[in-house]
Fold:
Amino acid sequence: MATIEYQLGRPADNLLAVAVYCPFQKPAVLLTEPYSEEKGVFPTIYWLSCPYLVKEIARLEARGYVKSYSLLVKEDRDFRERLRTAHKKYAEKRMALLSGEKVEKLKAGSPAIYRVLKDSGVGGINNLEGIKCLHVHVADYLVNKENPIGEKVWDLLDWPEDCHICDGDRVREWQECLLEQ
Structure:
């Protein structure tokens, strides 16, 4: 839990499990509960927690990759269909995380929330031909290996050869200990 809090800079909300670990045995993608009465709706079930990947993907977004991939979706029918399929599978996986009792309760008492969870795609996006952000697509790809946006982004990235980002607190404690001696 300490590593996840360090990665996120806060306690994790609705955490169910670590879905993917990096090669250095640190959490990389978190599996989150899509709905709880305490926290409400959270349609992003795969949360990218690896600080290295978060930063590298933010750089790609800053360089206009969301726009260029959006154009690809518009122009390439096969790619668009693969993305729609990824969005639909994401929604199915999200619904599978909810108990039958919770689904029935949402249908009856919160139909709008139920529809968001049932019908929205990767990261809760309503437009199944759209791209919310690259981070959620990579997280989905790392878990399921079926997201065409995530796959394209991943082709531009890789795990670093050596990484100690998530050892941050321990490294700082170790350095402070050495300075005190």
Summary: The two ends are 30 Å apart (CA to CA). The chain has nine helices and five strands. Strands lie at 15-21, 27-32, 35-36, 40-41, 46-48. Confidence is low (pLDDT under 50) at residues 171-179.
